[in-house]
Write a structure and sequence with these properties.
The protein has 508 residues and is of the alpha/beta class. It is built from 21 helices and 19 strands. Strands 3-4-2-5-9-1-12 form a seven-stranded parallel beta sheet, sandwiched between helices. A seven-stranded parallel beta sheet has the order 15-16-14-17-18-13-19, with helices on both faces. β15, α18 and β16 form a beta-alpha-beta unit.
């Protein structure tokens, strides 16, 4: 049994395992909503122990980081090395095929698994249980339900292919899930697990109109076979029927809003956001069939469905990018965009000052981040700073080093991410970990004291996942007062409180 006797047994985990075993017996599939930090990997491990020796289990996890953590968890809990195999980039084809044929427990990333099964489509037929971790990531954020013509493609720099335009159906699932699900055996119990199943995504209906549709509905209709029963186990049901409330208290997150007053940022935002509202009205008028309801949020989400050649869309997206830089980056970065002729003329005409006078000299967000972080370091604490751009992360790295602090950096370009993370976790010294979105993906920070979010991301789900990187910690979200960013922060937090009431409390 390995180290299974050392695991703290929890009623809600036992209930989930029983429901999965019941689904296997009754030939049903299951969706499990389980909040971050509640032990999805532990449940997967316990399930391997509860199944019969002849039962095989396939665990599909969204990234290499997540796969590595799952494999390490299983090893730490004492799984027999001969039972487990993993399929990810860097694993040779011979071993991929061997693991799929022989290993009782196979852990894989989606693309690598699809590549392996494409050459050996029957290799998945003997799995009894298929677990899809973070199943919400299977759904496209913007999707369509109609038939649309495929554009002709360039064959050379000067010649357009003469083949006839084909009609294709846009899919609702991200690559490679439309293909991957075809390899799943009908007899297998498919288990989708995630802590963020309450968000909506944008769907263009067959009549052309944009609509917000629950991701859960799309999962049910697009991923799970319609000829099998489906059990949905929600957090509400777990709270009512099990001891999960006792552990949610341990996992509670307090979010504090940290407003920053910068008159120059406020003035620039007023000009840029005002112009975007004007362009938004023009776009919604032009595509009335898509935007029957004049909703700016639908516009922003549905822009991906508007032709790339649309002039107003191009201008809107350029301004949106500049505004994003304004809130999330530093003056030495975004000033180059503000000084482009079209935007420069708009700003100088609206504000009546030169562009150099309009742009802040320093980032007050950077200053506030350093000020707050240093106060926690003086108290012998650990701090993580999340920011969107590598330029900002490097600026913070430079400033903290200059002040003599122990600091670590993880970005999408970091090769030894796991090693750096372990160094940060193991050190007993006050220290700072700076991460960008790609770098932070699938990372859990169970022992962190403070997470500072330098700038917010647009979607509720992504933002919730960001603040739940830590456990039992304080999260501070920085924003510029009296700007579009403040309105966005307030809207995101209100939605999070409504969707995940058991998980967080927001302080002003």
């Amino acid at each position: 049994m390995g180290h299974v006797d050392k695991i703290e047994r929890r009623m809600y985990q036992d209930l989930i395992i029983r429901e999965i075993l019941k689904g296997k017996r009754e030939k049903k599939n299951i969706i499990v909503e389980l909040d971050a930090g509640m032990g999805k990997r532990i449940i997967s491990y316990l399930l391997t122990r509860a199944l019969q020796p002849e039962d095989r289990i396939l665990i599909i996890t969204p990234s290499q980081t997540s796969l590595r953590d799952t494999v390490n968890t299983f090893r730490d809990l004492g799984i027999n090395e001969k039972e487990i195999g993993y399929i990810t980039s860097g694993v040779r084809k011979y071993f991929r095929d061997k693991y799929l044929r022989e290993r009782r427990v196979v852990i894989a990333t989606p693309i690598s698994l699809a590549n392996a099964l494409r050459n050996n489509p029957d290799a998945a037929k003997t799995f009894s249980i298929i677990i899809i971790n973070e199943v919400d990531k299977v759904v496209r954020r913007v999707a369509e339900t109609e038939n649309v013509p495929e554009d002709r493609s360039l064959t050379t720099a000067k010649e357009i292919s003469r083949r006839e335009t084909r009609t294709v159906r846009r899919i609702r699932l991200v690559y490679p899930w439309t293909e991957l699900k075809r390899y799943f055996p009908e007899s297998a119990c498919i288990v989708g697990m995630s802590g963020t199943l309450r968000d909506k995504h944008v769907l263009r209906l067959e009549n052309g109109e944009i609509s917000f549709v629950p991701e859960m509905d799309t999962l049910i209709n697009s991923l799970f076979p319609k000829n099998k029963g489906l059990t949905i186990l929600t957090m509400d049901a777990l709270i009512q029927r099990t001891d999960i409330g006792r552990y949610l208290v341990r996992n509670y997150t307090i979010v504090r809003k940290i407003g920053i007053q910068d008159p120059k940022i406020q003035a620039l935002d007023k000009v840029i956001s005002g112009k975007m509202r004007d362009l938004g009205s023009v776009i919604m008028d032009k595509y009335r069939n898509m935007f029957a309801e004049r909703n700016i949020e639908k516009l922003e989400k549905g822009l991906a469905l508007i032709p790339e050649t649309d002039f107003h869309k191009i201008r809107y997206l350029r301004l949106a990018l500049v505004r994003r830089f304004l809130f999330a980056s530093i003056p030495e970065h975004y000033s180059a965009f503000l000084k482009k002729p079209s935007i420069r003329g708009l700003i100088e005409k609206s504000l009546g000052v030169s562009i150099d006078e309009a742009i802040p000299k320093e980032s007050l967000k950077i200053q506030k981040t350093i000020e707050i972080t240093e106060s926690w370091l003086l108290s012998k604490r650990k701090v993580t700073v999340l920011c969107s751009f590598i330029r900002v992360s490097k600026k913070l790295l430079e400033e903290f080093k200059k002040r003599g602090h122990l600091v670590y950096l993880i970005t999408g370009k970091t090769i030894n991410k796991g090693e750096i993370l372990e160094q940060f976790k193991k050190t007993n010294k006050p220290s700072v970990l700076i991460m960008t979105p790609v770098g932070e993906r699938d990372i859990d920070l169970s022992d962190i004291d403070l997470i500072l979010v330098h700038d917010v991301i647009s979607t509720v789900k992504t933002m919730y996942q960001r603040i739940k990187r830590g456990r039992r910690c304080l999260v501070g979200i920085l924003y510029y007062r009296d700007t579009f960013e403040e309105r966005k922060v307030n809207k995101l937090l209100e939605r999070m409180k409504k969707l995940y009431p058991w998980s967080l409390r927001v302080q002003d």
